[in-house]
């Protein structure tokens, strides 16, 4: 007779074997199901690449703490047909922003920063354009794009600088368009400030902070911040533009310079996957708390409504548009999604994850302003979340076709209504040349060459084409070609004496045109040339004015007034260096200077030279 223990062993054996078989079968079925999904994704993603004329892109999918899918599509070097891999480096643009804010999250855990403090506490020389901004803006406002400032992007894009000090000074002269926390408005400058706050608190650069706090701990060994570092990597992608006709053109890399905290990182989908894994797992990576857990929750919670509106009829289950700290937030078909895109010359990106589903998706492409990251992200989301796939690609292709038709109609309408201006500029073209400066933007030089006015900003060039009166179209030369479709409007302005004193440029859509002050080109004159003007002149026959040379420069002295340095701007014509709208013009006869006229807003005063 079997003992009770023997009977238990027999029963265990009889039931254990079928259970093991069931587990093996279930695991095999799950693996097969995943394999089918990934095969489908291979097909769907390549279909999207071809339909959207994308040169190349890479994808990585993470679940919980593992990469479950990583692959490259198309080419990183179109000219030589070199394929993209999951390790190919791309510029990730503004997907960098979450790194910048997370540095402050780590520093808050170390009690080095208070998010409710004014940024001026950490950058004492920082000033905003309005007193209320200096008093009321706090660090959280920088992180959630709610300071009341518009983008002012051309201030750094056209006038880049490696000097953080110079960029901080510019912020004081950048006007807001609304009140504090009244409206969400994307602003790269405020992420530059976050990077600088982190640098002030640690004594290290933004790049060093991100490297040490995140890259080093996440195994992101090839990720970097500078174009030279990207260029020397063997597995890097070139950037490309693709127009609505599908024509592909290679683009130059863009050096974002000191604005790096807003979008300078270069990385691969394989390395960025570790970043997404960290966020999915509450800030942990391989058991180590990389980002404080309380910051992770706060950063991916809503702090500002991005835009008002209800879901579309086509997609009633895609809802809301909010912003956390360096992340966009939305409800995607019933699933909470955290995402941030990125666009910079030749590259587009999307980093996204679904925290409650433990799913992350990284898309990097070498197409400028590409719709592909969003399309690919949504296609992958539908399959991985086991949703009925929507036709994201078809809808996007339809919109692109509509945009193509609209562009053609707009061009035809513009061509048919184009007219030759019946007006003329108020001055000869040479009078518009000079240096134009705005303290919140930078300097641009305008020079006359071969009857055309050329513009050079800190980085980009362009040329002017007369439109009406003193208004010109400025065509920016971008990536080697003039942007004929979207000219900037430059309106020149005159001072009280009728001279060109500045220009207004429509560089910020949310504000009135930005006014740049003109400084005429200073001509270099020899000492012999300067000596021709020396002497005493009797203004109105009653007051003596002396013109003399001091330290190789020409000066004018009127009794009872300070001496004025004279700056040559043309033949016998000088500006008073410290007085806008005041100038002197000398008269010549038979090779000799015989008189001078002081031209002022209140009149012109002539004086003959004393013999």
Automatic annotation (TrEMBL):
Q: Which InterPro entries match?
A: AmpC-like, Beta-lactam-related, Beta-lactam/transpept-like, Peptidase_S12_Pab87-rel_C
Q: Which UniProt keywords apply?
A: Hydrolase
Superkingdom per UniProt? Bacteria
- Where does the UniProt annotation place the signal sequence? none
For this protein, the record's SUPFAM superfamilies field holds: beta-lactamase/transpeptidase-like
- Provide the Beta-lactamase-related domain boundaries: 45-375
Listed GO MF terms: hydrolase activity
Q: Does the keyword Hydrolase apply?
A: yes
Protein name per the record: Serine hydrolase
Organism from which the protein derives: Algoriphagus kandeliae
């Amino acid at each position: 007779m079997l003992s009770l223990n023997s009977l238990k062993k027999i029963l265990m054996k009889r039931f254990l074997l079928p259970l093991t078989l069931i587990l093996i079968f279930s695991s095999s079925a799950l693996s097969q199901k995943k394999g089918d999904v990934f095969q489908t994704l291979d097909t769907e993603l390549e279909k999207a690449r071809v339909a959207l004329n994308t040169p190349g892109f890479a994808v990585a999918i993470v679940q919980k703490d593992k990469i479950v899918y990583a692959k490259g599509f198309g080419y990183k070097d179109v000219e030589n047909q070199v394929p993209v891999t999951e390790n190919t480096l791309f510029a990730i643009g503004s997907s960098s922003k979450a790194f910048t804010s997370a540095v402050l999250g780590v520093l808050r855990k170390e009690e080095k920063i208070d998010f409710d403090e004014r940024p001026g506490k950490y950058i004492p020389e920082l000033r905003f354009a309005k007193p209320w901004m200096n008093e009321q803006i706090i660090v959280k406002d920088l992180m959630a794009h709610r300071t009341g400032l518009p983008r002012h992007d051309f201030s750094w894009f056209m006038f880049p600088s490696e000097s953080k000090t110079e960029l901080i000074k510019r912020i004081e002269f950048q006007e807001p368009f609304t009140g504090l926390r009244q409206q969400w408005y994307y602003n790269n400058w405020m992420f530059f400030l976050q990077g600088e706050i982190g640098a002030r608190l640690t004594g290290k650069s933004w790049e060093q902070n991100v490297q040490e706090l995140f890259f080093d701990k996440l195994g992101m060994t090839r990720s970097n911040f500078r174009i030279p570092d990207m260029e020397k990597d063997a597995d890097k992608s070139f950037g490309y533009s693709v127009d609505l006709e599908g024509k592909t053109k290679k683009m130059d890399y863009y050096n974002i310079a000191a604005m790096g905290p807003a979008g300078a990182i270069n990385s691969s989908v394989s390395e960025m996957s570790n970043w997404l894994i960290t966020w999915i797992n509450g800030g942990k990576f391989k058991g180590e708390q990389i980002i404080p857990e309380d910051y992770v929750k706060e950063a991916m919670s809503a702090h500002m409504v991005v835009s008002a509106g209800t879901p579309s009829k086509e997609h009633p289950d895609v809802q809301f548009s909010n912003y956390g700290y360096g992340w966009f937030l939305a409800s995607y078909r019933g699933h909470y999604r955290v995402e941030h895109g990125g666009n910079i010359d030749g590259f587009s990106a999307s980093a996204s994850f679904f925290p409650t589903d433990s799913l992350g998706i990284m898309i990097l492409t070498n197409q400028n302003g590409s719709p592909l990251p969003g399309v690919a992200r949504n296609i992958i989301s539908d399959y991985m979340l086991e949703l009925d796939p929507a036709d994201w690609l078809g809808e996007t292709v339809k919109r692109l076709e509509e945009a193509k038709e609209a562009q053609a109609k707009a061009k035809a309408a513009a061509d048919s209504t184009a007219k030759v201006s019946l007006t003329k500029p108020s001055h000869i073209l040479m009078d518009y040349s000079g240096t134009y400066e705005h303290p919140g933007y930078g300097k641009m030089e305008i020079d006359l060459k071969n009857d055309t006015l050329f513009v050079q900003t800190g980085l980009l060039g362009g040329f002017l084409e007369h439109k009406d009166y003193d208004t010109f179209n400025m065509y920016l030369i971008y990536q080697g070609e003039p942007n004929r479709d979207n000219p900037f409007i430059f309106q020149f302005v005159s001072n009280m004496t009728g001279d060109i004193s500045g220009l207004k440029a429509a560089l910020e859509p949310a504000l009135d045109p930005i006014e740049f002050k003109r400084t005429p080109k200073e001509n270099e004159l020899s000492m012999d040339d300067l000596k021709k003007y020396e002497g005493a002149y009797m203004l109105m026959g009653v007051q003596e004015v002396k013109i003399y040379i001091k330290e190789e420069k020409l000066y004018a002295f009127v009794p009872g007034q300070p001496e004025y340095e004279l700056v040559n701007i043309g033949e016998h014509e000088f500006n008073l260096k410290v007085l806008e709208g005041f100038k002197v013009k000398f008269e010549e006869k038979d090779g000799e200077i015989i008189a001078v006229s002081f031209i002022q807003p209140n009149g012109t005063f002539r004086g003959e030279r004393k013999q």
